Amino acid sequence: MAQLRLEQRPELRQILTPKLIETLKLLILPKIELESKLQQELMENPMLEEKQQPPKEQTKQDAEIRQWKKLLDGLKISSTQLPRVEDDGESDPLLFTKYQKTMYEDLTEQLAAASRDERTKKIGEFIIGNLDDRGFLNISIEQIRDSLISSGVLSPPPTLEEIEKALRVVQTLSPPGIAARNLQECFLLQLEDLDLKDSLAYYIVQHHFDDLKRKNIPQLAEHLGVSEDEVENAFEVLAHLSMFPAEGRGLTADIVEPD
Predict the structure, then answer these.
(1) Scanning 12, 41, 51, 176, which has its CA 20 to 30 A from the CA of 251?
(2) 188 by DSSP, 3-state: which?
(3) Is residue 125 part of a domain?
């Protein structure tokens, strides 16, 4: 007769709990079906509450960009398209996938090549780290100085002149317009990069930016003492400038959202 006995043996097992199963079901849903499923659960379960995303604070740059978009209405902006390559179905896309640097990595590498002064580099890296996703600098020179003093990164503490110098170095990096403090400065930096500092377009942006946003070409031409055609040509130049210094790349790595 077989003897019954009790013994312990270590064993690794993977168990799918009901909660984990439900989670996996949600993860594999397409985005549209997931939204529909969540709305259904909200209606059926009174204990669930939808958390509203707080509205994004509108900055001065946002207002200027909206005005500039209105200004570009009706203007024809040229664009280029890359030639389309037919897929033969045999190529492995992973073979052609390369690592793309973030804007922060790209700018810090450019900064290292652009300046040999260690203090300028450290201040410049701090400035780059405080750019928003569009490439604008939304903090003042004084705030940068106070933050650097608090962190104790530099000894002696940096002066406002040193910070202005470092900012100017960062603003010479690519893409043009990076680290601009407003849309007007963003345009001026791009025009400088195009060697158009002596152009009518540069003068209009520098001295008549508010008039520019109103798009009153006859009045602007009369005020400047030039023809309307010259003002329209200047507008055409400005129409090809970027409103976003970071050109959509952002300062951090992109997050791929599943379909």
Answers:
(1) 51
(2) helix
(3) yes
Q: How many domains does the chain have?
A: 1
Residue 71 resides in a domain: no
pLDDT digits (tens, 9 = 90+) for 85-114: 455 555 555 555 555 678 889 999 999 999
User: Are 156 and 112 a contacting pair, CB within 8 Å?
Assistant: no
First to last CA, the chain: 61
User: What is the pTM for the complete model shown?
Assistant: 0.62
- The length of the chain in residues reads 259
- Answer whether 124's CB lies under 8 Å from 141's CB: no
Read off the amino acid at residue 105: E
22-53 confidence digits (pLDDT tens): 777 767 667 677 777 777 777 766 666 677 66
The token duo for 240 is: 């090809």
Q: What is the CATH number of the domain that holds 186?
A: 1.10.10.1330
231 and 217 Cβ atoms separated by less than 8 Å:
yes
Q: Is residue 172 part of a domain?
A: yes
Q: What's the token pair of residue 102?
A: 């973030």
